[in-house]
Specification:
The chain is an all-alpha fold. It contains six helices and no strands.
């Protein structure tokens, strides 16, 4: 397997770092604009016509902070699996939302970055989101949380099960 070949292990380590940095920078930069102008982001979310009106503002107020925290965690190398699992869930939602909107023939701004960017939903956006989804899945599967939630909860990756001794 990969662990048997030092070159492959080094290549994988490099790819993991690259995936972390790419996802971190994408989600950090996307979060800044949304945090700075929550009203514009709420309008972009509402344009998808997928959420009930009551949830639009909650989603628009919460999502950018989740993206920012996940980006910071990925950049710092802390809680990488947890952050990438959260981003995997978000990216699945994004892919589904864009796919549904494309299927409905909507011509709307994606709301991904700056509201004034003029970036529309389309096949390119769907492809980019799918690529980010693959990167986040790769991180989720191939990284651990040595300093993350498992360490916080005292769960170690090596089994600490004790086998009882036979009665004497």
């Amino acid at each position: 397997m990969l662990d048997d070949h030092p070159r492959m292990k080094n290549l994988e380590s490099g790819l993991l770092v690259l995936a972390r940095i790419v996802l971190a920078l994408v989600f950090l930069s996307a979060s800044f604009y949304k945090i700075a102008d929550p009203g514009a982001f709420a309008r972009a979310v509402a344009n998808y016509r997928l959420l009930p009106g009551d949830l639009v503002n909650f989603f628009a107020a919460t999502l950018p902070w989740v993206e920012a925290v996940c980006g910071i965690l990925l950049l710092s190398g802390q809680w990488v699996r947890t952050a990438s699992l959260l981003l995997t869930g978000l990216l699945l939602v994004f892919v589904v939302a864009v796919g549904i909107s494309l299927g409905r023939g909507l011509d709307i701004g994606c709301g991904c970055f700056s509201p004034g960017s003029g970036r529309q939903i389309g096949w390119r956006l769907l492809g980019e989101d799918a690529l980010y989804l693959i990167l986040s899945l790769f991180l989720s599967v191939r990284t651990g949380d040595r300093t993350g939630w498992r360490a916080f909860l005292g769960i170690h990756s090596k089994s600490t099960t004790v086998t009882p001794s036979p009665p004497s």
